[in-house]
Inverse folding.
């Protein structure tokens, strides 16, 4: 980390890792969206009728 | 946070504080490591068996969703365990390179990660699959993170006996996801893993005793000594072998499973006897390592046979529609 007057400046390695973490979060969210979409198609109105 | 925090030197604590203020250096791999992927793989496998063996209709996508949620829930429990145990992990050779003690992930990040994953996995399992399965998953995460990690692990040598219930629940969750109920077969699978856990972990602790002693964890060899641990390993193995055959004895599994369970159970007892009779430290360590390795194979063999003999025949039709 380099400390400057205008705040924290990330090193190249920190930027690279942050980008990788952001991509992983984006992937997880995309999987979640697809999952909900596909399950809604499969279950249809039955989605609200779940076994306890 | 307990024992080891007091043991940390002031410089180490300063480093830790500084690390919290710095931008995160955590890689995606570090977050995956927080989820204990090896433990997760066993959880997913046993949950899969519970899911497939269960009667009834289940769409493959719903089954996949259930397994995904169970895997993520197990990962959440692992992350919460690593967050709370970072102090003792730093003192043990086996765990010192984990992301938190190694300084790659700040404790707060791990806590946030674990809580987020736990919440998502439980809610999604409930919304898309079954609320009973979701409740069991929530109980499992709570039991592992709070009852085992925060309470039992540091207070009693029976920690892994009682705490083993958390590791034994995944096939029950899988069964509940498929049926919306809990059946006897699911309880038998729970019992197999429950009685398997003590000889499995005590075998490991026999050759990691100094690690556990240094970290102040009251594992059985540390508190009661090697001799008593070896005796208990044998006792639990003798109980485990017939419990392993129970699905066949009670008519829930075929003869192939029965024969496999009997042979595998006898071998388990054989390995435990070797541990019990080892005459010197070198022989004991070797026998304990063999038992530890074999115990993993034992559980895999039993559940794989259950899957093949009981599950695939009917589930192909079921999944295939």
């Amino acid at each position: 980390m380099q400390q400057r007057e205008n705040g924290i400046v990330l090193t190249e390695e920190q930027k690279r890792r942050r980008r990788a973490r952001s991509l992983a979060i984006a992937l997880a969210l995309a999987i979640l969206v697809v999952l909900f979409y596909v399950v809604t198609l499969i279950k249809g109105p039955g989605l609200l009728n779940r076994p306890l | 946070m307990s024992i080891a925090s007091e043991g940390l030197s002031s410089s180490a604590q300063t480093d830790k504080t500084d690390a919290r203020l710095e931008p995160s250096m955590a890689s995606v791999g570090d977050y995956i490591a927080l989820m204990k992927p090896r433990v997760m793989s066993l959880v997913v496998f046993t949950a899969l068996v519970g899911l497939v063996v269960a009667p009834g209709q289940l769409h493959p996508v719903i089954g996949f969703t259930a397994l995904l949620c169970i895997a993520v829930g197990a990962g959440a429990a692992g992350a919460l365990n690593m967050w709370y145990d970072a102090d003792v992990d730093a003192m043990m050779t086996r765990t010192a390179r984990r992301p938190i003690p190694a300084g790659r992930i700040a404790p707060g990040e791990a806590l946030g990660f674990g809580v987020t994953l736990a919440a998502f996995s439980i809610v999604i399992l409930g919304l898309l699959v079954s609320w009973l399965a979701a409740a069991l998953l929530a109980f499992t995460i709570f039991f592992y993170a709070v009852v085992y990690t925060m309470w039992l692990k540091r207070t009693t040598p029976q920690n892994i006996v009682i705490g083993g219930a958390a590791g034994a629940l995944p096939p029950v969750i899988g069964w509940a996801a498929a049926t919306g109920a809990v059946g006897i077969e699911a309880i038998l699978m729970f019992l197999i893993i429950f009685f398997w856990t003590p000889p499995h972990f005590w075998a490991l602790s026999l050759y990691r005793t100094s690690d556990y002693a240094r970290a102040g964890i009251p594992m059985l060899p540390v508190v009661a000594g090697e001799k008593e641990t070896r005796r208990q390993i044998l006792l639990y193995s003798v109980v485990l072998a017939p419990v392993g055959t129970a699905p066949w004895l009670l008519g829930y599994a075929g003869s192939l499973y029965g024969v496999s369970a009997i042979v595998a159970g006898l071998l388990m007892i054989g390995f435990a006897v070797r541990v019990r009779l080892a005459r010197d430290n070198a022989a004991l360590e070797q026998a304990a390592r063999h038992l530890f390795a074999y115990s993993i194979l034992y559980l895999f063999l039993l559940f794989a046979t259950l899957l093949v003999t009981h599950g695939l025949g009917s589930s192909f039709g079921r999944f295939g529609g």
Notes: Chain A is about 60% helix and 10% strand.
